Amino acid sequence: MTYVTKPKFHHPELPKNELGYTHRDYEGSVSTLCAGCGHDSISASIIEACFELSIAPHRVAKLSGIGCSSKTPTYFLGNSHGFNSVHGRMPSVLTGANLANRDLIYLGVSGDGDSASIGFGQFAHAIRRGVNMAYIVENNGVYGLTKGQFSATADRGSKSKRGIINNDSAIDLVGIALQLGATFIARSFSGDKKQLTPLIKAAIEHEGAAFIDVISPCVAFNNHAGSTKSFDYVREHNEAVNRLDFITGRAPIKVDYAPGSVETVEQHDGSTITLRKLDSDYDVHDRLAAMSFLQHHAAKGQIVTGLLYVAAEAEDLHGRLNTVEAPLNALGEKELCPGSTVLDKINASLR
Amino acid sequence: MPIQSVNDFVVRFANVNGSGSASANELFARSVLRMGIPVAPRNIFPSNIQGLPTWYEVRISEAGHLGARGGTDLMVAMNPQTWDQDVAGIEPGGYLFYDSTKPLPKSKFRDDITVIGVPLTAISNREYTDPRQRQLFKNIIYVGALAALLDMDIGEMEKLIAEQFKGKEKLFDANKHALDLGRDWVMMNLHHPIGLRLKRANAVGDRIFIEGNSAAALGAVYGGATVCAWYPITPSSSLADAFTGHCNRLRVDPATKQNKFAIIQAEDELASIGIVIGAAWNGARAFTATSGPGISLMQEFVGLAYFAEIPAVIFDVQRAGPSTGMPTRTQQTDIISAAYASHGDTKHVLLFPEDPAEAFEFAAAAFDLADRLQTPIFVMLDLDIGMNHRLSRPLTWDDSRKFDRGKVMTAAILEAGREFGRYLDVDGDGIPYRTLPGTHPTQGSFFTRGTSRDRYARYTEEGPAYADNMQRLLRKFETAKDLVPRPLQANAKKPTKYGVIYFGSTSPAMDEAIELLEATGHMLNRLRVRAFPFHSSVTSFIGEHDFVFVVEQNRDSQLRSLIVNECSIDPVRLVPILHYDGTPITARFISRAIADHLDALKVTPLRKGKVVS
Question: What is the torsional sign of CA B294, B300, B301, B307?
Answer without folding.
Answer: positive
